[in-house]
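REQUEST ID: PR-0412
SUBMITTED BY: lab tech R.K.
PRIORITY: routine
TASK: structure prediction, single protein chain
INPUT:
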Amino acid sequence: MKKVFNNPKWVVVGILVVILLFFAYKSQATEVEGGLTYAGKFNDGYALTIIERFGGKFDLGVTLVGEQDYKGTVIENNGTAWFGYVATRPDHWVRALPYEVTIGAAHWIETNRFIGCQQGYMLGLKWAVNNNASIGVRHWSNAGICKPNRGQDLLTFGWRF
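STATUS: complete
OUTPUT:
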């Protein structure tokens, strides 16, 4: 069975303890998203995102991405720190549209340059399941500023505390 993150077990436990303490200490505007990775198709990877919202309009996030299989090549763990401007759907618009749209900048912390370069952009769409739960998609890209220009995509399942 493939590990979600291919770090030593004690490292994964340590990361989970820090994340749980973070939520226990600060569980008012924090959101967590878990999801499946894809780059053209689902590629056996998983990701975990922690997001903090500021002023009701700005998100600061950290995303950890586990090992992926991209066209037969193993892409090691990587991650990104990102900042996004969040726009919410007007109440009188069609409810089937996403309730949030995010546009922002990202800095990838990776050695394999899967998306081409460390600086890039992030786009996100999110639909509400209830007051706390959401389903969404996030897409990171370098918008062609360097090569290769693969995107990193996530199908996300979120919970806002």
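NOTES: Helices lie at 9-25.
REVIEWED BY: pending
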